[in-house]
Amino acid sequence: MHIAVSQSSKVHLTQLTITAPGDSPNTDGVHISQSENVHVSRSTIGTGDDCVSISSRSRFVTVDGIVCGPGHGVSVGSLGRNGATASVEYIDVKNVHFINTTNGARIKTWQGGKGYAKSISFTDIKFTNVDHPVVINQFYVDHHHVPNMGAVALSNITYKNLRGTWKHKTAVDFNCGESGSCTNIHVNSVAITAADGGRTVSRCQNAQGDTSGYVYPKIPCLK
């Protein structure tokens, strides 16, 4: 990791330039854990892993005005590894431009985890040629489907004013467990189109919530 913020409060990181090759492993730009009132702003971050990662026992974190690329996006998680109990809340990610990244706005949890991640928002986000722009993945790393294992409960997740282009087939991917662990997912004003003019699609499993305004691609499991 380039910068790690741990067991801290009232931290403001601004006007950073972080550069690492896109194929460099585990090179998070800014990693935040067990901290509160952390503000990351007005920075350019290119890495081989998450540009910003926010892990358990973090709250009141703001990421504002970031250019991310290359990298794996801005991620909440991963949470709940080896059955651990996670707690993340009041995360505000806004005014972020993802350029040629693997992921964009991502939440990732392990099967069998406990606890919660709630009150998370992604607002005014731009994607340029991103592989997977919007992701909730409750099967992080372990892709085998094992029902009723339990999961970190995700709730009150908001996506508002997301625009841009994707590189691969699925622009929005909500892949949630079977135990009602993704609730109150709110999607408002989204337009993610294919860079090559092709059709954009979404995948949605077990997510509960609603959409409002113009949303493309449509997300079938949300009202």
Helicity range of the residues?
under 10%
H/E element sequence = EEEEEEEEEEEEEEEEE
SS element count, helices: 0
**How large, in whole angstroms, is the Cα Rg?**
16 Å
Low confidence ranges: none
Number of strands: 17
What is the highest CATH level, the class?
Answer: Mainly Beta
Instruction: Give the overall silhouette.
Output: globular
Biggest β-sheet description: 9 strands, parallel
Strand coverage percent: over 45%
CATH topology annotation: Pectate Lyase C-like
Q: Which class best fits the helix and strand makeup?
A: mainly beta
Q: In total, how many domains does the architecture comprise?
A: 1
Whole-number average pLDDT?
A: 94
Distance between the termini: 39 Å
According to CATH, the homologous superfamily is Single-stranded right-handed beta-helix, Pectin lyase-like
CATH architecture: 3 Solenoid
Structural description of this entry:
The protein is mainly beta and 223 residues long. The protein has strands spanning 3-6, 9-14, 17-19, 30-33, 36-46, 52-54, 58-68, 74-79, 85-99, 103-109, 114-130, 132-137, 153-166, 170-175, 182-194, 201-205, 209-216. It has one domain (3-80, 87-216): Single-stranded right-handed beta-helix, Pectin lyase-like (Pectate Lyase C-like). The strands form 2 sheets. Strands 2, 3, 5, 7, 9, 11, 13, 15 and 17 form a 9-stranded parallel beta sheet that branches. Strands 1-4-6-8-10-12-14-16 form an 8-stranded parallel beta sheet, with no helix packed on it. 44% of the residues are buried.
Key attributes of the depicted protein:
mainly beta; 223 residues; 9-stranded parallel sheet; 62% strand; 17 strands; 8-stranded parallel sheet; 0% helix; Pectate Lyase C-like; single chain
